[in-house]
Fold these 2 entries.
Entry 1:
Amino acid sequence: MFKRKPKPKKLTLRQVHELYLLLRHALPKKEEAFLINEVEYILDHAVPGTLIASLEILYKSTPKKMNGIVAAALFIRGLKENNFFSYVEFTRTLHAR
């Protein structure tokens, strides 16, 4: 399907915050034990189009057509490589004060 596997961008703080604003309503209320559980929760609670919009932030380019498994795998990789959930934890800590 891919000539080369897409590599996530190294997001700027502004881009990580943009991703956070896009996903914040679909984030679990508390941190899950495993990344896959957090991602599953997000995908279950996100509004339609959120996954594609997230991939547009996370990657310079993504294939026009991809199946759901590939899209989810790219999403997970992009979140992981950009330490997205560390940012979520940091932001929640700020709001709790």
Note: The two ends are 47 Å apart (CA to CA).
Entry 2:
Amino acid sequence: MISILLATAGRHDRVLDLIGQVRATALGHDLEIVVALDGPEQEAQELRELGCVVDHQLERRGSAQAWNDALALSTGDPVVLAADDLEFRTGWLDAALETLAEFPDGWGLVGFNDGHWGEELSTHYLMSRRLITEVFGGVVSWGYEHSFTDREANERARRAGRYAWCKDAHVYHAHWLFGDRPQDATDTRLLDRHADAERRFSERQAAGFPNDFQAVIK
């Protein structure tokens, strides 16, 4: 089983489309979609009716906490770090799994081709549970309020020799920064925290990315 960890808030229609995309583009694979939703109960119930595992909160907890909460409920291996502004294209999962199998013992992190950054930065990716426990300290995010979860994940995996980017794993990141869509309230809510997150990333990087968070999985 493959677990899709989806953090979302304020984009219910996009999430419904995304769930359909994931299932349509991963035919033949056993999927578990775990949604950490900050929003109304009605949205949570609709996601449950679609067969998703749902961790629901009314108040905004932020994506960092949401991804870890989704990880805690997941049972699959590998897991996918996903967001509500992605577009999954045909063949993405088969390509990513083929790349994953090329690692020694078949475990690591495989970055998706998001249409923007290339190998420089995998904004979303597929990870083995062994990578999460042995390299990431049992979590998939480290408390950044705005961005930098991906940068820490990428660098930690690279330092461990467990990073690969897959050109054919097309998971497009429809981001306002590249003019793909207008900014919305979810985008702008924490923009003023970006500089603090960047500073915190630099500090954690200099310290060797300490495992100073309680493990979600062991």
Note: The first helix runs from residue 12 to 25.
